[in-house]
Amino acid sequence: MKAILYHEYGSPYVLKLENIEKPIPKDNEVLVKVKAIALNAKDWRLMRADPFLVRLTGTGLFKPKNPILGADIAGIIESVGKDVKSFKIGDEVFGDICETGHGGLAEYTCSTEEALAHKPSNATFEEAAALPLAAVSALQGLRDVGEIQSGQQVLINGASGGMGAFAVQIAKAFGAEVTAVCSTRNIDLVRSLGADHVIDYTKENFTRNGKSYDLILAVNGFHPISDYKKSLSPNGKYVMGGGSTKQIFQALLLGSFVSMGSNKKIAALSGKANQADLVTIKELVEAGKLKSVIDSTFDLEDTADAIRYMEEGHAKGKIIIKIEN
Ligand SMILES: NC(=O)c1ccc[n+]([C@@H]2O[C@H](COP(=O)([O-])OP(=O)(O)OC[C@H]3O[C@@H](n4cnc5c(N)ncnc54)[C@H](OP(=O)(O)O)[C@@H]3O)[C@@H](O)[C@H]2O)c1
Fold it and tell me: 320 alpha carbon to ligand 1 midpoint, in Å?
């Protein structure tokens, strides 16, 4: 089968198209014929081993242990291990296979059944592949860390990107009044996703406009934590989805310190793939409350170009690799 492999850490040049043996599923695994893969920041972080600490998390100290990247997949079950209960050959599935060691950028990959769910019936494979990490993280950031409530004023910073586009829609599904922060070219997009108010970050700094929010989810740091704190209502929460290593450590270590003397809370999101949340996302899609925004679609052999484009950080929604097998 064709797959994109990397045998050393580095820039997208390390990614090579190779012909390798089809994997064989273990007893508790399924073999998936992959139709589409969504790229995530995690993929370029693993490719570059950036930050360096990534190498100490079982990824491989000197070279990658799992030479195939790609965790968000959608495809068709090709065969099942003898202990698999919830899927059969021919089922259309989607999921986040990071716990199985990635391996999505290939014509076939193996996954445990817990990492997958049935694909939303009204989604294409590309739309389904866009969902697992980004939509589940948006859900966990708003529902579990942010404890979102209906009627709250919620601000999503980075609203037009992979996670942000889902966060706007999920916050609306929870009944919040949503302010989306994006650049001029994405205003129509975030309105179409249901945002009640839009702030163009190229013209206005929302941390200086005197307004306050019950919950702020920022997909990247973008501003200092202290600025976010100023924009929170008295019991408000700031959830940091991602950012530079320094920003993430600040949120984790200084979060409680920054919120001292007030009821404001600062937290960093650490999303965890799980089947129950995939099912929640599938149900939101099937109910017409959530749709994938796809920026662009690349062929498997053009994965390096797709990752270069992702690293620029200005995608409108998700970047997808499509496999015509
Ligand atoms: N913690 C977790 O569990 C978890 C899970 C998934 C992802 N993440 C993290 O989330 C982050 C974002 O992921 P993503 O896939 O959503 O990224 P993305 O698709 O690259 O989106 C980033 C968005 O940020 C916008 N942006 C750039 N500069 C901005 C600014 N100054 N103010 C406001 N918006 C700005 C861009 O819009 P314009 O083009 O308009 O500039 C773009 O739409 C990554 O750091 C990733 O590691 C974390």
Answer: 16
Ligand 1 centroid, distance to 76 Cα (angstroms): 30
Question: In whole angstroms, what is the distance from residue 210 CA to residue 233 CA?
Answer: 11
Cα-only R_g, the chain: 20
pLDDT per position as a tens digit, 146-192: 999 999 999 999 999 999 999 999 999 999 999 999 999 999 999 99
Residue 120 gets which letter from DSSP? P
Rounded to whole angstroms, how far apart are CA atoms 31 and 113? 10
Instruction: Indicate whether residue 181 lines ligand 1 (CB < 6 A).
Output: yes
Q: Nearest to residue 142, comparing CAs of 126, 130, 128, 155?
A: 155
Three-state DSSP at 88 gives coil
Cα 317 to Cα 42, 189, 277: the distances in Å are: 16, 10, 20
Q: Does the pTM of the predicted model rise above 0.90?
A: yes
CA of 307 to the centre of ligand 1 (A): 14
Q: DSSP states of 207-226 as a string? A: GGSS--EEEEEESS--S-HH
Q: Which ligand 1 atom lies nearest to the CA of residue 223?
A: 31
